[in-house]
Amino acid sequence: MSATTRAFRIPVNPAGWDAERIRKDFPALHQEVHGKPLVYLDNAATSQKPQVVIDALTAYYTRDNANVHRGVHVLSERATDAYEGARERIRRHLNAASTREIVFVRQATEAINLVMASFGRTVVGAGDEIVISAIEHHANIVPWQMLCQEKGARLKVLPVDDRGDLIMDEYPRLLGPRTRLVAITQVSNALGTITPIKEIIEVAHRLNIPVLVDGAQAVPHQAVDVRELDCDFYVFSGHKAYGPTGIGVLYGKESWLERMPPYQGGGDMIKMVSFEKTIYNDLPYKFEAGTPHIAGAIGLATALDYLDGLGLDAVGAWEHELLVYGTELLQAVPGLRLIGTARRKAGVLSFVLDGVHAHDLGTILDQHGVAVRAGHHCAMPVMDRFGVPATVRASLGLYNTPGEVEALSSAVRTAQEIFA
Ligand code: PLP
Questions:
Q1: Which residue among 29, 152, 205, 213 has the highest number of C-beta atoms inside a 10 angstrom radius?
Q2: How many domains does the chain have?
Q3: Tens of pLDDT along 362-376?
Q4: Are the C-beta atoms of residues 12 and 404 closer than 8 Å to each other?
């Protein structure tokens, strides 16, 4: 530990948390970049994968690879069992009522586009309104904008205060008889804000307005119970939750999914096809046209097993300790401004440094082995709101350590000296 950091409170391990042992599960962490040990702090973009997930993918392709649902041979049965087993695993993780409510997609982005195309095009008409928040990722802005343009509907935006908290007093005023959907994030990727999602859902439901929750930044860090939340739709990506890329999940209440038309047409989403008429398949297959990412689903289920094995409460507690420590260290750097200091925050440290452009800072951090993201984080409206073109974002994962947070702050100080 450097002399500059000695005054700070060092994170306390939650009972039984052994970061060094956990790090051994992640092969990609054990490498050097630019001759320095890798400090991976870009977890909000994507997480590294534990060996069990890599092994699950290898095992699937080594032994069981076949197409699902249609085959009569052993490998196809194995692949189908594993794929449908993964769906059940995800149902259990989210506490959904039925696997009929779990649709595999490519990622959170596709899940939102599915709801936009299927639910949105059916339900939203000219003069209707969709409510989002000022801290959404582009994935939860652009599809709704496209729908509004197409239908002559209006996008309304719940504002954010200077800390990065949603201004909840404004929320009821945004809802009305023309509101067809509220689509809001559970955790902001750019600021780390944890939104009061339960309250957001309750208030909308009093007016019978359905709510889509973007859980992309929540699922890797906390337990999620869709029945407890009572959300209508919930989306997340596997790759941010220690699973593979190319696999994500849409949860939808069965009552909505039943009423929604298919998103794409093709194989597997049908029961019967003739040139006159097609009868669509049951849920959830109605929404899964074509060969799915079978290995991805299996890998994601394995990642959720891994997360549950550690315990999501312990994961959240550890990351919170790191966040508090990192906040203290960075706030002590002269000329550094944290962007996003919400009352309830996940492990995101977004900041700007006087006299150093975020991209230059990101490059210097990389030279020190510290992997962060520099830019607008697919949240340009957030950057506009805080009056900055870009930030450097360090985002924490379960395998990060106090020493890595110190490496970040000391690399930032070095960058500052270079530009002084
Ligand atoms: N929503 C949030 C809050 C995100 O942080 C992200 C990605 O960073 C997305 C949606 C989109 O995720 P993906 O690119 O995996 O679809």
A1: 213
A2: 2
A3: 999 999 999 999 999
A4: no
**Is residue 47 domain-resident?**
no
Contact at 8 Å (CB) between 393 and 377? yes
Whether residue 284 is preceded by a cis peptide bond, meaning omega within 30 degrees of 0, is yes
**Together in a domain, 242 and 209:** yes
Residue 387: left (phi > 0), alpha (psi -120 to 50), or beta? left
Which atom in ligand 1 lies closest to the alpha carbon of residue 378? 8
Query: Which CATH number do you get for residue 321?
Result: 3.90.1150.10
Lookup: tokens for 275: 């040139």
Q: Which two tokens stand for residue 406?
A: 């110190």
Report the CATH number that the domain containing residue 101 is assigned in CATH.
3.40.640.10
* Domain extent for 336: 3-30+311-419
Q: Which ranges in 121-262 belong to alpha helices (H)? A: 121-123, 142-151, 171-174, 197-206, 226-229, 254-259
- Nearest-atom number in ligand 1 for the CA of 108 is 16
Q: Residue range 194-210: average pLDDT?
A: 98
Residues 113 and 15 in one domain: no
Q: Do 297 and 389 lie in a common domain?
A: no
Pocket test for ligand 1, best of 110, 234, 237 (most atoms within 8 A of CB): 237
If asked whether residues 165 and 59 sit together in one domain, one would say: yes
Active site residue 378: yes
218 with 318, same domain?
Answer: no
d(CA 181, CA 278): 29
- The residues, ordered by sequence, that sit 6+ positions from 323 with a Cβ below 8 Å of its Cβ are 192, 345, 346, 347, 348, 349, 396
- The response to whether residue 48 sits with its C-beta less than 6 Å from ligand 1 reads no
Task: For residue 400, give the amino acid letter.
Answer: N
Residues 12 and 116 in one domain: no
Report the residue among 115, 136, 189, 234 best suited for mutation to probe ligand 1: largest number of ligand atoms under 8 A from its CB: 189
| C-beta of 216 in contact with ligand 1 (< 6 A) | yes
Does position 98 have pLDDT exceeding 90, yes or no?
Answer: yes
What's the pTM?
0.97
Q: Does 117 score more than 90 pLDDT? A: yes
